[in-house]
Structure formats: C-alpha cells, structure tokens
Amino acid sequence: MAAYVDLPSLKQALKIGDTDDDPRLGLLVLRASRLIDRWTGRDDDAFIGRAQTRVYDVAAPASPDRGALGYESWSVTLDLDPVMAVTAVATDRDGDGTFETVWLPTDYTLLPINAAQKGRPYQQLRSHDWTSLGGQWLPSGQARLQVQGTFGEADASDPTFQTPPGPIVEATIATVSYLAKAPVDAPFGVIGNPEFGTQKVPPCPPVVTGILRDGGYMASQDFWFA
Fold this sequence. Notes:
alpha+beta, two-stranded antiparallel ribbon, 4 helices, disordered C terminus
C-alpha cells in the first residue's frame, strides 16, 4: 500500500524533531492515505501512478457522427480509468482474446485535451475518423480495447508519476495530525471491531474536506468497507 507523504516531509510539516514516534507515525500515514482514498471515492493507491495493462468493452455506436462538412464519421469516444500516460493501444477485431491490431499515436486522441498541462489524468480515448483520415476503428464487443500505460491520478510534474498531487499530500498530513490527537480507544470516531463485520468510514474532518474540495477531489462520504 502506498503512503501519500514520506516520514521526513510529514515530520517537517508537523514540526516533529525526534524519532520517538516514528513507528506510530508510519502507521498513521498509511491509515490516513487509505482514508483519503475512501473520502475521494477512489481505489487504494489511486494517487500514484501504476504501470498496468487494462482491457475495455466497446459499445457499438448508435449512428455515425457527422462533422462540420457533413461527412460520416465512426469515431468513438470511450471512457477510461484515470491514466497519466498511455504507452500502447491495441484492439481485438475478431474477439479471440488476441489484441492483434496495434494503433499508432495518430490513430487516437486522449481527452481532456489539456489534461497534462493542468496536472490531471486523461479520462477518455477518442478514435479518429477511419473513413476519411485513415485511422483505426474501435470494434464493438467485450474486451476489445487494450490500453497500456501509467494509471492513476499522480502529480503530472513528476515524470515517474510516483508523487501524489499537492492537495492529496496536504490532506494526508492534516489527517495524520487529526489521527494523532484522537483517543487511542476510539480512534477517529471509528466504533466497533472491523473483524466482526463492516464499519462506516469516519467522517472527513472539516479541514481535510476543505483541502480536498478546493483541489477538486472531494466525493460523497457515504462509503462502507469490510
């Protein structure tokens, strides 16, 4: 599991000069990081990049688009998981599980167009108009598109995509500070033993809510986990 802030940076932010509580702080950082995932409605480790290969279903277009000049276009826009960089795209035209058609970067566009400049991940892939521009087309069916890349919502200024966005780091530090002050027998408002069933994710402290909302990461707090 990823920690969204390293121990030296955390201690500097909280003005902690000794090493007495380092083991506990390390555990609190991990717990705070997972709470950030829950409060933002993301999967675990969502705010660092992970090199992965993912496969997507492709729905058949209802009808061709018509461009400004009136020609027919079978371009398709497909939702992706948040992805910082795409290294390879391929399609399985006949549904045999082999992605035999490898696309060129000129065959598709990642959207939003200015995501990288804004430090945000791409969320969609749009195939180019194969009828007029010679690009590839998306075959419809289950598991027809394969995308290789670095998935997640990391800081785009880090070329390795291993640094969480600034608001996530700040929110993690604030959460650790809050956790460190909570009573040991009822940490952060969590009641009951998770070994005996589900428990509700504790409410997000107002200071953390403000950081996440200002950064555009806040989601509903109505989450449950086992």
